[in-house]
Design goal:
Blueprint lengths: L2 H7 L3 H5 L5 H7 L7 H21 L18 H14 L17 H21 L7 E5 L4 E5 L3 E6 L2 E7 L3 E3 L2 E3 L1 H6 L4 H9 L12 H14 L5 H12 L4 E8 L5 E9 L2 E8 L4 E6 L10 E3 L2 E5 L4
Antiparallel strand pairs: 1-2, 1-12, 2-3, 3-4, 5-6, 7-8, 8-9, 9-10, 10-11
Helix pairs in contact: 3-5, 4-5, 4-6, 6-10, 8-10, 9-10
Length: 310
């Protein structure tokens, strides 16, 4: 709080920080049971949106010594929303500690919400049937791909097959799995986490780091593989235990679909995935390490089993 704000309002800094709608409720809330992950994610998203709006609307100049400052009262809306989010999240906040702390202290709630979100999505994934069919089909913006149980890969554009080849399978850790091997892959989240964390770099992917590659591999399995509901659920639970995963909030993918964005910061940049929490479908994957000429973004318009190609 600036000297100008104190003189204008007649409040001390502590009084001004606590002068917003909901402050009394926050102080009285104490420690309560944590809410569902969805409610917490929505509260955090509301705070982030309020901060973004406030930043856009903030005045660019101030008469006080030519400095670019923002009158404290205009920040109260964001602070009030933060208080509501804190009460909803069951956070015990002492009134003496209402002022913002170091930036690093914000990572705890984000990490917890990521874990809770992924475990909630795991429950949804366990209830989703994969259906039946001869081929695993993925519908992209540019065309469709089909993979058979014998791992024959067909790429179709405008209803015409333009390429047929052998699919080497889906990678996880240091191994590749064909369709049949996926059916035998462990569904123990702890064992899957071990494979993700002990990923080895592929000679074809020299620019990425192993941690990022492990996250991308798990995400690709969730997005574009004929994995059983049990395996998809276990993969989500494994990622819930992976360090470095954060919830970025509710966003829209490049096709305009709404979902929750997760981010993972690795040695080469940030990987982003967008998940529909209602269906557990992974909508979009953005990889950080590929060059400009390569496709860094994969948008999965639809995936599933089918009996026909075309």
């Amino acid at each position: 709080m600036s000297t100008y704000d104190m003189e204008e309002t007649g409040m001390t800094e502590r009084q001004a920080v606590l002068d917003f709608p909901g402050a009394e409720a926050l102080r009285a809330a104490g420690r309560v049971e944590p809410p569902p992950a969805k409610a917490l994610a929505q509260a955090l998203a509301a705070v982030e949106e309020a901060v973004r709006e406030a930043s856009v609307q903030a005045p660019r100049e101030d008469a006080l010594k030519g400095a670019v400052v923002r009158p404290f009262w205009k920040r109260r809306r964001a602070v009030a929303l933060l208080a509501v989010a804190a009460v909803a999240a069951g956070v015990a906040v002492a009134s003496a500690n209402m002022a913002a702390g170091p930036a690093g202290t914000q990572q705890g709630p984000r990490a917890q919400s990521a874990s809770a979100f992924l475990n909630d999505v795991a429950e949804v994934a366990a209830t989703q049937s994969t259906g039946s069919g001869t081929y695993w089909k993925t519908h992209f913006k540019t065309g469709d791909t089909y993979t058979s149980r014998s791992m024959e890969f067909t790429y179709v554009v405008d209803g015409k097959a333009v390429r047929t080849s052998h699919d080497p399978g889906w990678r996880l850790g240091s191994r590749r799995f064909d369709w049949n091997a996926l059916d035998r892959l462990t569904t123990d989240p702890a064992l899957l986490l071990g494979q993700i964390e002990h990923t080895t770099k592929d000679s074809a992917d020299e620019d990425e780091d192993a941690a990022t590659l492990g996250f991308v591999q798990a995400s690709t399995l969730l997005a574009n593989a004929p994995a059983s509901p049990e395996l998809r659920s276990a993969l989500f639970r494994a990622l819930a235990q992976l360090k470095g995963v954060r919830v970025a909030g509710t966003v829209k993918d490049s096709a305009g679909r709404s979902g929750t964005e997760l981010s993972f910061r690795g040695g080469v940049g940030t990987t982003e995935v967008i998940i529909d929490p209602r269906t557990s479908k992974l909508l979009e994957l953005n990889e950080p390490w590929r060059s400009e000429k390569d496709q860094r973004q994969a948008t999965y318009l639809s995936t599933g089993l089918t009996d026909t190609i075309g």
